[in-house]
Design a protein that fits this description.
alpha/beta; 13 helices; globular
């Protein structure tokens, strides 16, 4: 891999996660040390890390689904088969959920996305501004396909305080429409305009361009990286999820030599809330199959201290993954790195 590219990615992840975590993650995923991840020696240290961290870690990320409506038809996303009601979260419900969580936990980052395109929500800028004004220390992440990120919306977004935007492009001109169901030239124009204005304004927002490696685009990944790498802060090509069985026939390239499943770090570190205000299992629970309570009706600490949620954590620590969503989840390898990083 290109050294210049590696250094650029290292700088990007240092800003996102801090230097120590960025170095560890790089070593365990991009170097010779990836051969040891989930192996016998690794497991000894890893089990110790879990025993220590699981007792003291508190939620630090809130993922909130401001809408589950989407204008794309991505072949690798379960949105095309999702059966739950599609709607927008009202501004009042959004405020109530954010206040509920941030008044109870020291949340560092809010991710505004779920199983929808966040900019379908015409009130998304007002929601961002609410966080900016009431919780200025909290960083905001947005994941978007950028197809409706018009110049006017880009201007409004750049006047707000957003820490990172990930543009999920997932293809080149030759395969983009087949993969996303959208027009490539329009999306490309929107992303380029955003970056142009970002440079002109010297805006600190970080940007990432991502591509899932699929049968339809696997021969064009290098072309994708080559085009976008000089423009964005980071370009990431990665193996897609099957969304706990929601998407079939997805290429799976195991990132590590040893196949070993461990407790899911996200259950301790993240709070995931769907468009109806339910605290669900995680970001892979696209049908909200497992809900522990509703933040529009209950206090977040009441929910996370409930017997149902505590039972789930105990099962995870006992390596019992016989739970809806968990039992079919493909996030069984990389989750281990989070505990040691």
């Amino acid at each position: 891999m290109d050294v210049k590219y590696i250094l650029k990615e290292a700088r990007y992840y240092k800003k996102i996660t801090g230097l120590s975590r960025a170095i560890k993650k790089f070593l365990f995923t991009q170097t010779f040390f990836s051969n040891f991840v989930n192996g016998k020696i690794y497991q000894r240290f890893y089990q110790n890390a879990i025993n220590k961290k699981s007792k003291k870690i508190k939620p630090r990320i809130l993922q909130i689904e401001n809408t589950n409506l989407c204008n794309a038809k991505c072949i690798m996303c379960p949105h095309v088969v999702m059966k739950r009601e599609k709607k927008l979260m009202s501004f009042e419900d959004f405020k109530k959920i954010v206040d509920n969580v941030l008044n109870s936990y020291d949340i560092k980052r809010i991710t505004m996305n779920g199983f929808g395109e966040p900019f379908v929500d015409k009130g998304v800028i007002d929601k961002i501004k609410y966080i900016n004004e009431k919780y200025p220390h909290v960083k905001i992440d947005i994941y978007t396909n950028a197809s409706i990120l018009t110049p006017d919306l880009s201007e409004k977004l750049l006047k707000a305080k957003v820490d990172r935007i990930t543009f999920s492009i997932n293809g080149t001109k030759k395969n983009y429409k087949k993969i996303m169901g959208l027009e490539y030239d329009n999306t490309k124009k929107n992303v380029l305009y955003f970056h142009k204005r970002r440079r002109e304004m010297n805006h600190p927002v970080l940007t990432n361009l991502s591509v899932m490696i699929l049968d339809e685009n696997k021969d064009d990944v290098q072309e994708f990286v080559k085009f976008w790498e000089p423009i964005a802060d980071s370009v990431r090509a990665y193996v897609p999820s099957d969304w706990a069985g929601g998407v079939k026939n997805i290429i799976q390239i195991p990132p590590f030599k040893h196949n070993k499943r461990w407790p899911c770090f996200v259950l301790w570190s993240n709070i995931t809330v769907d468009v109806n205000g339910n605290m669900v299992m995680c970001c892979r629970d696209y049908e909200s199959k497992v809900s522990f309570g509703n933040l529009l009706k209950q206090d977040i600490k009441e929910i996370r201290n409930s017997e149902d949620f505590k039972k789930l954590l105990r099962k995870q620590l006992k390596f019992d993954f016989k739970t809806p969503v968990c039992d079919s989840c493909d996030n069984i390898l990389e989750s281990s790195i989070d505990w040691v990083c």
